[in-house]
Amino acid sequence: MNALLAMPLAVPLLGAALTMIVRARTAQRVISFVALAVSLGSAIAVLAHVAVTDEIAVSSLGGWPAPVAITLVGDRLSAMMLVIAVALLCVVLVFAIGQRASDERSPFYHPVYLVLSAGIAQAFLAGDLFNLFVAFELLLMSSYVLLTLEGTDAQIRSGTTYVVLNVVESTVLLTAVGLVFAATGTVSMADLPARLAELPDGVRTGLNLLLLVSFGIKAAVFPLFFWLPDAYPTAPSSVTAVFAGLLTKVGIYAMIRTETLLFPGGESTLLLWIAGFTMIIGVLGAMSHVEMKRILSFHIVSQIGYMVMGIAIGTEAALAATVFFLLHQIPVKTALFLVQGIVERETGTTAFDDVGGLARRSGFLAALFLIPALSLAGLPPFSGFLGKYALVRAGFEDGRWVIVTVALVGSLLTLVSMTKIWIGVFWGEVYPEVPAGRVGILRHHRLMSGSTIVLVLATLAIAALAGPLFDYCRAAGEQLVDASTYVRAVVGP
Questions:
Q1: Residue pair 108/62 in contact by the 8 Å Cβ criterion
Q2: Residue 102 has pLDDT above 60, yes or no
Q3: Can you tell me the distance from the alpha carbon of 226 to that of 338, in angstroms, rounded to the nearest whole number?
Q4: What is the DSSP string of 282-299?
Q5: Hey, how many other C-beta atoms are within 10 angstroms of the C-beta on 130?
Q6: Cβ neighbours for 432, distance < 8 A, ≥ 6 positions apart
Q7: Which pLDDT score, from 0 to 100, does residue 79 have?
Q8: What is the DSSP code (8-state) at residue 188?
Q9: More confident residue, 62 or 362
Q10: Mean pLDDT for the stretch of residues 116-125
Q11: What percent of the chain has pLDDT over 90?
């Protein structure tokens, strides 16, 4: 099991090195697929071990004891996130190849894509704060390259904003890690709960806020979200799909770890305010625009608010609902951006003034949009309804009436904005200027449509298998609430 935990990090980095040496495009694609497939296989094995044995998998690299060694930890939450992340990276890579965009044809796309995969895996498995910081740095460097790989003026402008804000985030995080070490003498997440509890309340609160600010920038919560709606729409759709599905969720994952393991019962009131404003400001931003990609980018922000709500409530039921909502959000958001990529590929735009009536040209494409869109809005019987229902129920049980009301209003406005896309892009008058040679959506782009279909089917599978999946999420919530199980697994009784 120790070797399996390290493989999702080591294999993509090895693949990245090979793709830097081998510049032939076909060879790079093969290496990338093999690296991600091996990573996915090892991640599934870790998930199966964790689910069957109900144990936490731990690997201390180099044979050193856990507080000193680089420790990788796979519990129910991290193992689930790892499998979803690597599977999604595989699917989006297929889409990128089918899209034939200039970024994927660059000799640097595949090495950077694999480094991004390694960074995501390290973030989910990191057992100490410093290696979580290193994972964030890998994500920053690789995501910036992917964001600006085509080198357009818009990408450079938005990429500059993106990297500046993320450098600020890295500085805050590194400062927080240094102060945590200075105050406690360790950065191990298994050692920190006991040592942080011994600190004065003011010191603990200050350290908690520093970590929340750094993770909040990564997750794009209010008021730290302003970089995202400008940065993501300029990137190719395959890149934006990965960013939308995974990068902000890494920040949410880090917040879950911080607020359950290191600072249980910490800044719940502040987080509730942040959750409410993130939901409403995000969805209002979506409603104010008339371009599909920008609307979906604002919805990344809005949906993050629901996860922060679950973290803030902090009960076992709320955390289980948050984990399920994470499970649902990743394929739903990615599928919507892949549909957007197909629309943009066919028409050259997704602005409402220049495109319309696509449902008449391809009802199948319209269905590929409609299913995840209704799930995002939280309508039954889709997975989004189940996730939001669980969060709302947890809020009612804990007496959080105000945030529950805000969440319900946010869901209603999300439905309105999804209807806006449906009317503007798929309904109304037929798009008047079909580019030469493009006579039918989905006819020539089997890889693009096939990968999108896989993700849409995944969203339906989550709804169909909601019972056993929620049982798993409930067990994950139990592990998160009982921090002692994490501590015992890493450093012993």
A1: no
A2: no
A3: 23
A4: HHHHHHT--BHHHHHHHH
A5: 17
A6: none
A7: 93
A8: B
A9: 362
A10: 94
A11: 50
Distant-in-sequence, close-in-space partners of 182: CB < 8 Å, separation ≥ 6: none
Q: How many residues does the chain have?
A: 493
Q: Which two tokens stand for residue 207?
A: 């350290």
Across the range 201-208, mean pLDDT stands at 91
Mean pLDDT of 86-102: 85
Q: Cβ distance 99 to 444 under 8 Å? A: no
Averaged confidence pLDDT in the chain: 87
Query: Within a 10 A sphere around the Cβ of 182, how many other Cβ atoms?
Result: 8
Task: Assess whether the previous peptide bond of 223 is cis (omega < 30° from 0).
Answer: yes
Judge whether 98 and 448 are in contact, CB under 8 Å: yes
Cα dist from 371 to 53, 228, 477, whole Å: 35, 25, 28
Both tokens of 278, joined, read 């993130």
Instruction: Give the helix ranges, DSSP H, for 103-200.
Output: 109-125, 129-147, 153-184, 192-197
In whole angstroms, give the CA distance from residue 158 to residue 142.
15
Q: Which residue type does 349 have?
A: T
437 pLDDT tier (thresholds 50, 70, 90): very low
Q: What is the dihedral of CA 269, 273, 279, 285, to 10 degrees?
A: -160
How far separated are the first and last CA of the chain, in Å rounded? Answer: 21
User: Other CB atoms closer than 10 Å to residue 43's CB: what's the count?
Assistant: 28
Q: Looking at the DSSP assignment, which residues form a beta bridge with residue 57?
A: 74
pLDDT at 438: 45
Q: Can the peptide bond before residue 381 be classed as cis, meaning omega within 30 degrees of 0?
A: yes
Q: What is the pLDDT of residue 439?
A: 38
Helix (H) or strand (E) holding 271: helix 268-287
Cα 275 → chain centroid: 17
User: CA-to-CA distance for 80 and 77, rounded, in angstroms?
Assistant: 5
Maximum alpha-carbon separation in the chain: 70
Nearest alpha-carbon partner for 233 in 139, 309, 340? 340
Residue pLDDT, tens place only, 145-167: 888 877 677 777 777 888 888 88
DSSP letter, residue 106? S
pTM as predicted: 0.91
Residue for token pair 């289980």 = 320
Provide the pLDDT for residue 60: 80
> What's the CA gap between 239 and 262, in Å, rounded?
33
- Cβ atoms of 356 and 425 closer than 8 Å: yes
